[in-house]
């Protein structure tokens, strides 16, 4: 059974340049030069689920050509890497209410920055298991403008950016066919994202900031004092997983047209993806992502939309979607572009796929 991406969409707020951040004293000039980042997207007070809703509406409109309607959807899978709203409230059902507005299941998916690829795999499994529904809506949204988050300095690996993305996963055809998908984890590395912090009470409940650099410094002190560093090299996990998924797709990196990856800064992009895979930045989406930042789980799909809508990938091209996240875990998928992009102006914006409203 073939699984397709019937539509993809994103929503990004305005950019704040790293030059401006340096001028305001938010970001160190040396860090800017090292990172290679030119700008990040900042949403201010716009809630993360609303960005997911806007992205979902674009993806749903683009999927209308396949004949899908809201009753054809069996689930909504929403991804988030940071807090979405009130405790005890469901962001996935908010997104559902303001898009498909049908009484179907909605769930939040992790882990972290590879959430949308994990959700894509889950959506494919669901469609294979349940023939009664032909589509699943996958969404993502994050806003890191909270007072306890310093988007410019929380990590040397990336600059946190705000935005949303969405994809319609379907059995009825679309602009890209899912050829293969897979993931792998290195649980021995899970400590990298909690080092020095207690599990209870959760940091956010006592006003602790999201600061990966503090955790890295804690680990370095431990290693200097004689604690053994993990023997697992995450780059090898990335390379092995990509090789396996490409092999399952019957292709190779040499035949892949582009790689849509996490929006890392230059050093992390090289050490986690480019060097292990022995590829050049031009094969990826670095020149695009360095003006966006790291939008949580949304990055590979924002990049895919960018390439497809600009004709940088065309029918017959294979594209590798790649993301890594806490755990440590890596996920990737190979999709084959099967349809040309049709200008959004040709889309019937009165179709009943999307619930348009003012909140």
Automatic annotation (TrEMBL):
<dbReference type="InterPro" id="IPR016039">
    <property type="entry name" value="Thiolase-like"/>
</dbReference>
<keyword id="KW-0808">Transferase</keyword>
<dbReference type="GO" id="GO:0006633">
    <property type="term" value="P:fatty acid biosynthetic process"/>
</dbReference>
<keyword id="KW-0963">Cytoplasm</keyword>
<dbReference type="Pfam" id="PF08545">
    <property type="entry name" value="ACP_syn_III"/>
</dbReference>
<protein>
    <recommendedName>
        <fullName>3-oxoacyl-ACP synthase</fullName>
    </recommendedName>
</protein>
<keyword id="KW-0012">Acyltransferase</keyword>
<dbReference type="InterPro" id="IPR013747">
    <property type="entry name" value="ACP_syn_III_C"/>
</dbReference>
<dbReference type="GO" id="GO:0044550">
    <property type="term" value="P:secondary metabolite biosynthetic process"/>
</dbReference>
<dbReference type="Pfam" id="PF08541">
    <property type="entry name" value="ACP_syn_III_C"/>
</dbReference>
<feature type="domain" description="Beta-ketoacyl-[acyl-carrier-protein] synthase III N-terminal">
    <location>
        <begin position="112"/>
        <end position="172"/>
    </location>
</feature>
<feature type="domain" description="Beta-ketoacyl-[acyl-carrier-protein] synthase III C-terminal">
    <location>
        <begin position="246"/>
        <end position="337"/>
    </location>
</feature>
<dbReference type="InterPro" id="IPR013751">
    <property type="entry name" value="ACP_syn_III_N"/>
</dbReference>
<dbReference type="GO" id="GO:0004315">
    <property type="term" value="F:3-oxoacyl-[acyl-carrier-protein] synthase activity"/>
</dbReference>
